[in-house]
């Protein structure tokens, strides 16, 4: 049985799902290549297959090329596509030859130029002996130049971003979609053009979720497609008007947008005096509007992450840059303070450190002043005197003095002030030992303070990075949230709608509390979901004085069924293990388990402090490594006695299933994935022992039905193989049932006379409702 969890230096075991996904993408790009190759403009030109082959990313070049080749091989016009097939092969050859030059081969302008050269060279050869239509060849060349650039930008945007595209990126994506619409515009069902119907549908989608500007861009793109294909000649301008009208009425509802599209079609056709084909064109608008009205809400939520309505406050605003700069300045200043404290402490330590030579000198001054044998003892017999004093110090320290007993006996027989000498040695060495202990303690405090400064510096730096990485704030959504809460009778003081780099929205609203206000969380969730057209989870409400903060996050694809069971080492005593679990407000479910040193009340204090502080820091938005440093320094400085605890954290992304494990001296974590079990072990030290502490990290992707176990070391008396067997055999039951089962099995395996606290945290991944 292979382990399914690896350390961060290793790669996660690949699955068949990745292969199927990659195959599906290549098939999709081949279909796009085929459709683009069959897109005909000006009745005889078919340049768009070359455009897709020239503009696609290298990884998808085989699929697009095969699709385009088949599309040209099966002619869409009477003239055939053999000229384009030769140009296609030339483009592939050029791209493959230059593939090692990454910057050049991935430059959109360069790709546009080589596609143009390939088309021109094959076009001139093909036209040899035939009347050369320079106007058509020039138009085709311009379309290729711009088309390759647009398609390249679209591929790059889709591959590198999951959501939150800019207007320029959306324009390139819509331009690429226009090519596909041209390719399917000649495909009819019962006399209805699939391409034209989809064009109207796409315009309505763009205006609904992208606003008037994006809708107008889409309308203009469809107008271009209608013009170059000479589809419904004379009425192509209706698409542009339709996009503008739907965008204007977009703030009302999708029903108003659909009616505005139909009205635009009727008005445009009226100006054309309802020429031949007007009825079919109007029917296509009706069908597209009907599909637009009937699209499910889940589809709309997914599309809304691509089209963000403007205006948006972006992260590169002057306020954002200024705040980021100030946070970084504060972080660097505190880091300088930390390093300065360390340097000054080191230099002062060299100057003020207690010197043992001074102890010997003071003993001579205090015990031998006025003694007539002083010169004899400290000059003639200096080595013997020092050896005797060191023997006395060893007696004080409780060390072995058998080797120096003879020298000490001779000294006592010679010394005239034995009692005074012994008392002086004891007093002076005790003072020296106290100074050494104080210096060591002060040094420990200095290190802790220095680490605290460094930790706070890291916190500020992470805050600056988090603020910088916030993709954008949706002002429209914030206004909608304010209005929705006001409709519920909730007075909103402030509202923000943040959208991260994955397109996930989170809402924070500050509201005014009063004695008559009743906050119904389910009602708030439903109203905000309708207002923002997204699925949200039940909100968290934090009350502070006469105000409250409502935090709402998007509803994730996964949920965690949580089960916890504990067993104390001694019946009736306090468990030394402490745990926490919570949602961090960013789509992650976090599990924290800490095992305090030993058992009983002292261990419980250490474990509770560790898990409590770590949870609060994570909830506040600080990173795991930064929080660990702050926690470690707090444990070191908590008391003069030894105080340590393990730290075990699992962070599960509820949108993707990606799970990060952070371990400091903790017991192994057990995982069952796709029916097979594995474990992640820690080789790092617990917190509270050394100043320098770090997490061991591991990563894994969990899916529906997978199981994750966090356990304390009391569960592992008999190893972990039996736990893996239990996980693989577990079929039915809740996470709580599983936790109780594992805890009971562990209790039966405990070694008599060596009891330890047992804690099992079981998490079963389920599909969210």
Structure description:
- By secondary structure, the protein is α+β, with helices and mostly antiparallel strands.
- Strands 1-17-14-13-12-11 form a six-stranded antiparallel beta sheet. Strands 4-5-6-7-9-8 form a six-stranded antiparallel beta sheet, with helices on one face.
- A hairpin with a 4-residue loop joins strand 11 (577-583) and strand 12 (588-595).
- The radius of gyration is 38 Å and the shape is elongated.
- The two termini are 33 Å apart.
- The relative contact order is 0.06.
- The model is unreliable at 1-16, 128-132 and 310-316 (pLDDT under 50).
Distance between the termini: 33 Å
Strand order of the largest sheet: 1-17-14-13-12-11
Beta content comes to 5-15%
Question: What's the multimeric state?
Answer: single chain
Gross geometry: elongated
Observed structural traits:
alpha+beta, 6-stranded antiparallel β-sheet, disordered N terminus, single chain, 769 residues
In short:
By secondary structure, the chain is of the alpha+beta class. The protein is built from 25 helices and 19 strands.
Topology record:
Layout: E1 6-7, H1 16-37, H2 48-55, H3 61-73, H4 82-97, H5 102-105, H6 108-127, H7 134-160, H8 167-184, E2 188-189, E3 192-193, H9 194-229, H10 237-248, H11 254-271, H12 278-294, H13 297-304, E4 312-314, H14 318-352, H15 356-368, H16 374-380, H17 382-397, H18 405-414, H19 418-469, E5 472-474, H20 475-487, E6 492-499, E7 505-512, H21 521-532, E8 540-544, E9 547-553, E10 558-567, E11 577-583, E12 588-595, H22 600-619, H23 624-638, E13 647-653, E14 658-664, E15 669-673, E16 676-680, E17 696-701, E18 707-711, H24 721-729, H25 735-749, E19 758-767
Antiparallel strand pairs: 1-17, 2-3, 4-5, 5-6, 6-7, 7-9, 8-9, 10-19, 11-12, 12-13, 13-14, 14-17, 15-16, 15-18, 18-19
Helix pairs in contact: 1-2, 1-3, 1-8, 2-3, 2-4, 2-6, 2-7, 3-4, 4-6, 6-7, 7-8, 8-9, 9-10, 9-11, 9-12, 10-11, 11-12, 14-19, 15-19, 16-17, 17-18, 17-19, 19-23, 20-21, 22-23
């Amino acid at each position: 049985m292979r382990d399914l969890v690896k350390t961060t230096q290793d790669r996660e075991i690949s699955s068949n799902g990745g292969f199927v996904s990659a195959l599906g993408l290549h098939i999709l790009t081949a279909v796009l290549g085929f459709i683009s190759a069959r897109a005909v403009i000006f009745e005889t030109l078919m340049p768009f297959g070359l455009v897709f082959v020239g503009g696609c990313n290298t990884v998808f070049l085989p699929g697009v090329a095969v699709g385009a080749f088949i599309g040209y091989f099966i002619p869409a016009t009477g003239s055939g596509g053999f000229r384009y097939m030769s140009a296609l092969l030339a483009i592939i050859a050029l791209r493959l030859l230059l593939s090692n030059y990454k910057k050049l081969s991935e430059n959109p302008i360069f790709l546009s130029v080589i596609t143009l050269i390939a088309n021109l060279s094959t076009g001139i050869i093909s036209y040899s002996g035939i009347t050369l239509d320079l106007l058509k060849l020039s138009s085709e060349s311009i379309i290729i130049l711009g088309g390759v650039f647009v398609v390249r930008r679209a591929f790059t945007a889709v591959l590198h971003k999951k959501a939150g595209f800019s207007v320029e990126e959306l324009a390139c994506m819509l331009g690429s979609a226009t090519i596909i619409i041209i390719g399917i515009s000649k495909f009819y069902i019962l006399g209805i053009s699939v391409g034209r119907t989809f064009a109207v549908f796409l315009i309505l989608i763009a205006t609904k979720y992208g606003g008037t500007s994006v809708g107008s861009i889409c309308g203009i793109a469809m107008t271009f497609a209608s013009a170059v294909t000479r589809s419904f000649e004379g009425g192509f301008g209706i698409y542009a008007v339709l996009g503008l009208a739907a965008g204007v009425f977009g703030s009302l509802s999708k029903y108003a947008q659909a009616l505005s599209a139909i009205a635009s079609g009727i008005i445009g056709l009226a100006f054309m005096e309802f020429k031949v084909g007007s009825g079919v064109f109007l029917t296509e608008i009706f069908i597209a509007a009907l599909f637009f009205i009937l699209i499910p809400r889940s589809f709309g939520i997914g599309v809304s992450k691509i089209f963000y309505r403007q205006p948006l406050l972006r992260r590169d605003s002057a306020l954002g840059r200024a705040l980021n700069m100030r946070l970084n300045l504060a972080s660097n200043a505190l880091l300088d303070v930390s390093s300065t404290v360390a340097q000054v402490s080191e230099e002062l330590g060299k100057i003020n450190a207690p010197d043992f030579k001074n102890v010997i000198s003071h003993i001579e001054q205090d015990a031998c002043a006025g003694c007539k044998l002083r010169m004899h003892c400290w000059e003639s017999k200096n080595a013997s005197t020092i050896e005797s004093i060191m023997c006395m110090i060893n007696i004080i320290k409780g060390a072995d003095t058998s080797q120096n007993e003879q020298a000490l006996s001779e000294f006592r027989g010679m010394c005239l002030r034995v009692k005074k000498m012994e008392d002086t040695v004891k007093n002076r060495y005790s003072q020296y030992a106290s100074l050494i202990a104080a210096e060591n303690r002060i040094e420990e405090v200095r290190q802790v303070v220095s680490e605290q400064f460094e930790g706070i510096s890291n916190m500020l730096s992470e805050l600056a990075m988090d603020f910088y990485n916030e993709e954008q704030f949706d002002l429209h959504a914030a206004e909608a949230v304010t209005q929705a809460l006001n409709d519920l009778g909730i007075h909103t003081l402030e509202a923000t709608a943040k959208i991260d780099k994955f397109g996930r929205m989170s809402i924070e609203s500050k509201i005014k509390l009063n004695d008559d206000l009743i906050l119904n969380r389910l009602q708030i969730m439903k109203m905000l979901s309708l207002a923002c057209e997204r699925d949200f989870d039940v909100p968290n409400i934090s009350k502070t004085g006469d105000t409250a903060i409502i935090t709402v996050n998007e509803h994730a694809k996964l949920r965690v069924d949580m089960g916890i069971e504990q067993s104390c080492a001694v019946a009736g005593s306090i468990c030394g293990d402490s745990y926490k679990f919570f949602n961090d407000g960013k789509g992650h479910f976090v599990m924290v388990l800490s095992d305090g040193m030993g058992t009983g009340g002292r261990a419980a204090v250490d474990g509770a402090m560790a898990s409590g502080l770590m949870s609060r820091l994570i909830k506040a938005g600080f990173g795991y490594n930064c929080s660990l440093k702050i926690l470690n320094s707090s444990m070191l400085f908590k008391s003069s006695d030894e105080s340590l605890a393990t730290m075990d954290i699992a962070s599960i992304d509820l949108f993707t299933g990606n799970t990060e494990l952070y371990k400091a001296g903790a017991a192994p974590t057990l995982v069952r994935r796709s029916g097979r079990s594995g474990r992640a072990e820690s080789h790092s030290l617990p917190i509270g022992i050394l100043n320098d502490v770090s997490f061991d990290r591991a990563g894994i992707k969990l899916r529906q039905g997978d199981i994750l176990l966090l356990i304390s070391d009391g569960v592992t008396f008999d190893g972990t193989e039996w736990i893996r067997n239990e996980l693989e055999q577990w079929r039915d039951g809740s996470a709580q049932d599983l936790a109780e089962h594992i805890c009971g099995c562990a209790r039966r395996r405990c070694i008599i006379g060596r009891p330890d606290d047992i804690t099992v945290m079981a998490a079963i991944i389920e599909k969210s409702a």
